[in-house]
């Protein structure tokens, strides 16, 4: 069956049915001359099952004042009151937009099918194209919208979301979303969706920790990690976003998402088109875990940069927690020797190598090598790194500037600011206006020099403050609020160009830890620094939330020494097992490790190299949540199905507590598996039904169990 069908119903309505392996999604240009959603959920057997059906009983009769619209892309201006996707102002002052259906086109791509619905304002020269890209194998539809001014007068966009999604009416919905803070990113929250609006949004310029542009919805309290209907979605945008979940008095639940309209204006001049970021939406009948795996597979195959998508991520050493701003040739070279010895593949020098950057109060923006710290420049260090068989990576924070820097003294106008108003600093820094073409050129220029003149294979791109006082006095007339979007577009454009020029360089998105993690920047970033909090117990929780929406292939964590965060120290096992669940790094002072410690680390790194394909590219299962049990467990299955790895973490044992077995998932029931620590083989079914007995006791102890299919 084709994944997009256009059907003329017996009522002469036009119906589009989008189908994937398990999902059906249907909408119609109906009798009321509206493009309305009919259904989204489990796939139905017959095309007629998707036909619009009148509601049996309408308590409000023709008094439809309270009913909200099921429109796919509600434009504001007539008798409807829920969240609009489009709100415009035409040059004559009219602010109502009424869209008519024109036609639809379908194109087949390599891995997807695209349906485009062409709409046109009834009176004004405004065209809207709704684009639905159907990824049948992933149970995912990616929506985008384009708005084109085909007239000769400018049109002002006051609000433009990507899409409205509508869910079938249920007694209740449970919303899962992410919220957090620095050092406690990606915390999972799940609660009953109340009537009214729930807002997942950002108004500070970048993705942030306090929320993430992502949602999952389960229905009637029946959805679990392993079963039940789950609708999910994520926005591919790293600037101000907004996802509005609206539940009305009639159990109509809709999810509208896109660029935040807060302080937003966009001037659409004659002939111009505005394209929204993508809103990725999917459905599974198999619970939250399956929803995450659909997202992970889609991200691995269609979002993370293509050139490096199938390249195993290298094992990183990072200097930050060891030397902080005091990076110098002498201390780095010592770390280089030891890192190479234990098997590190990529040596990354963090903050402190440039300008007068001796602390966070100065130097940011001055991207020349500090000659006191590196009298011969970076070459001797990089050469030694390369001689020892490692690649070299470096930290930058290009969108920011310290007031105490040559850059700021030369270009005070380059930062966001309002005239006659004081400027706030955050971490002693200000935000450069990356909407400005000259700022973009500056960043592209110094980054190109840095990468062209040094053998650098990895960039850690940081971004450590929120936007405030966001004035742009020199903006083209009528465009001073476009920076909310243009800044992010500028960053994407720079990354895109750098990737083109330097295709073998890996990019990590950092932003104080997980502050810019989303499907937008993921198109350019190979990986994310998940959190500055490297306390492995805390990371169990951060990891759980991160993986709800984001693939382990992009999740970077380091093994560090005890740090000030909780003042706790952990065994090597516990730290390594945690850091291995994705991309492994080391951020510890190797000069203080004993020869025995270095040997242990060498063994862990060697082990990681053996299992890394499973940990980075495998299917990921959250077997038991740290939110629910002192014993949490995770599982990775190699794409071939031939190997699996289970990691188990016990935070505290209590006398008499006898851990229940860990039931594995996703195995071939009839296959036999060789399991670490057992002489007899297990069938997949036995591992999934009886489960693996776990005999851990103590505090913060862990185990990594490998399984090989016979
Ligand atoms: C941020 C990052 C850290 C480190 C510092 C350097 O806080 O999250 O990992 O790079 O900046 O200043």
Q: Note the gap between the termini.
A: 36 Å
Please state the overall shape, judged from the principal axes of the Cα atoms. globular
Q: How is the main sheet built?
A: 10 strands, antiparallel
Bound molecules: alpha-D-galactopyranose
Put simply, the count of helices is 11
Give a count of the beta strands, DSSP E runs of length 2 or more: 36
| CATH fold call of the largest domain | TIM Barrel
**Regions with little confidence, pLDDT below 50 for 5+ residues:** none
Please identify, by name, the CATH architecture of the largest domain: Alpha-Beta Barrel
Oligomeric state of shown chains: single chain
- The CATH superfamily of the largest domain turns out to be Aldolase class I
Rg computed from alpha carbons, rounded to a whole number of angstroms:
27 Å
- Overall average pLDDT: 96
Helical percentage: 10-25%
Helix/strand structural class = alpha+beta
Number of domains: 3
CATH class of the largest domain: Alpha Beta
Strand content: 25-35%
Structure commentary:
By secondary structure, the chain is α+β, with helices and mostly antiparallel strands. It folds into 3 domains: 57-102 and 132-303, alpha-galactosidase from lactobacil brevis (Beta-galactosidase, Chain A, domain 5), CATH 2.70.98; 316-616, TIM Barrel; 631-709, Golgi alpha-mannosidase II (Immunoglobulin-like, Sandwich). It is 19% helix and 31% strand. Strands 6, 7, 8, 9, 11, 12, 14, 15, 19 and 20 form a 10-stranded antiparallel sheet that branches. It has an 8-stranded parallel β-barrel with strand order 21-22-23-26-27-28-29-30, surrounded by 5 helices. Strands 5, 10, 13, 16, 17 and 18 form a 6-stranded antiparallel sheet that branches. Helix 3 (329-342) runs parallel beside helix 4 and helix 8 runs parallel beside helix 9. The mean pLDDT is 96.
